[in-house]
Specification:
Helix content: 25-40%
Largest sheet: 3 strands, parallel
Structural class: alpha/beta
Number of helices: 8
Distance between the termini: 39 Å
């Protein structure tokens, strides 16, 4: 089951990390939006994010991973209104047809997912949004896969993590659903979706050419190039910089 750490412990750890020079903190949870719901009297994720972001000296806060059923209006409004809270959401959808979402027991429809993405973008027009997709889930037909491809074109996310279905022990699908999409077909669908993602990102990133963006330097490569990310989690490489990790 899920266990939320006490918020006082998290805030004390955030403060200690910042005192040691940490500039960015990521709050992680399998369904991070459910933070605090298992602890009577505990604050919930939006308030936790506001308090962590208020840590003196901290530049950036991120959180992941979200579940479409658990993202609240309060969470979206908090990201929009809180300085230092990065405008970035990881919201896995996993499939683009209601039939497959129902078989996955995800608890939402394609229409509900799209409405959620529209709500995020209405509050945060420049938010980074990434998602997860599974191809070759039991029962996924070529038409279902095309539904997934079409959904990705409509959403136009900033990243898609694409996985081929494989039965995981003890899961509902492994126990009850035959793994009936042949491996070559799964691989073909994965390659198709990756190609579509590359095309979408090429077009999206071309629009940002020439822009000046803020990055937090994370690493220095062997050739001296600096690697960092924008607040909305776009990776950026900088040549000829003398910045150190942690610099903005």
């Amino acid at each position: 089951g899920e266990r939320s750490r006490p918020s006082a412990e998290i805030l004390a750890e955030a403060d200690a990390l910042v005192r040691r020079g940490v500039r960015e903190i990521i709050l992680l949870g399998q369904i991070v939006d459910r933070y605090g719901l298992d602890r009577p009297g505990e604050i919930h994720l939006p308030e936790l994010l506001r308090r962590v972001a208020a840590t003196p000296g901290l530049l950036r806060v991120r959180f992941l991973t979200s579940h479409p059923r658990w993202i609240t209006d309060d969470l979206i409004a908090t990201v929009a209104a809180t300085p230092g809270l990065c405008p970035y959401f990881e919201i896995p959808v996993q499939a683009g047809s209601d039939e497959i979402l129902a078989a996955m027991r995800r608890g939402y429809t394609v229409a509900a997912y799209e409405a959620l993405i529209q709500k995020v973008r209405a509050a945060l027009p420049h938010a980074g949004i990434s998602t997860d997709m599974i191809v070759g889930f039991p029962g996924e037909t070529a038409a279902h896969f095309e539904d997934s491809m079409a959904l990705m074109r409509r959403i136009n996310p900033d990243m898609i993590r694409i996985a081929k279905y494989s039965p995981r022990p003890l899961t509902y699908s492994a126990r009850h659903l035959p793994d009936d999409v042949p491996e070559p077909e799964k691989e073909c669908r994965r390659i198709s979706m990756e190609a579509q993602l590359r095309a979408m990102l090429t077009e999206k990133n071309a629009r940002r050419l020439g822009q000046t963006v803020e990055i937090l330097v994370e690493t220095i490569e062997k050739n001296g190039r600096r690697h960092g990310r924008t607040p909305d989690y776009k990776p950026v490489f900088v040549d000829g910089s003398t910045a150190s990790p942690g610099d903005v």
